[in-house]
Amino acid sequence: MDLSHPDKLLWPEAGVTKQGLLDHYAAVWPRMERFVVNRPLALLRAPDGIAGKQRFFQKHASPGMHEAIVKMADPEDGEELLYIKDFNGIAALVQIGVVEIHIWGCTIDAIDTPDQIVFDLDPDEGLDMNDVLAATLDVRRRLDELGLPNVVKTSGGKGFHVIVPLKPKADWKTVKTFAHDFAEAMEQSDPDKYTATLSKKARTGRIFIDYLRNARGSTTVAPYSSRAKPNATVSMPVTWPEVENGVGPADFSIGGKPLEKALKTADPWADFNKLRKALRG
């Protein structure tokens, strides 16, 4: 589809336009497609750019949405959900000023059996980046000890997301309970470093191991999605050696050299589907 106003600046400071965002998605689409197609979505829209007055989350259709943004009813409560089937869907999202694409942890065909676990490492303000990197590697070590596969991506913000690829067997309650227990165990083993509690007070000087992304209807930012940050960062899949070598959560941005270079190397999540393992309740 053709964009209207392709030169509209969505990220004024970074100089990224609607066309620039669409070009980004065209470049990453071969790697991104399987993580966003046929999954319920939540959309962060900024029709006037991220510095504009309009900035809102959207989970339901609105008048004038392109047909490439597909509607379905949630089988549990009939609530309207949105998803896309192909790149035309991504283009339609860009057209309406979507600056972040968030996904459920399941597909529309298996909505009650999640196919991933997400641990979002959210550090308190002022924590050293080395603390965040060490915590991310600690999550990996603990998952390895449990025999669970894991991959990692930058958040595009302050932390990292560690993902466990699942075979869609366990229900949401089982998955969320596991994620909660895992985060709580980290807090109990090192209460000076970690918290499993959402409150700002509990986070003081600590890293919040956010397990709350693993509830039905909760979302996390999609791999390769742009972020509504001034420098147009991207949530970027990376390798564990890159984390060990100090890659930063905001190192990749639209049109930036690190992202361009990463797309010329092997896909760090190439084996994502092969890694999937059932979670035992």
UniProtKB/TrEMBL annotation:
Pfam families for this protein: LigD_Prim-Pol
Domain annotation DNA ligase D polymerase: ranges: 17-269
Domain of life assignment: Bacteria
Protein name per its UniProtKB record: DNA polymerase domain-containing protein
Organism of origin: Mesorhizobium zhangyense
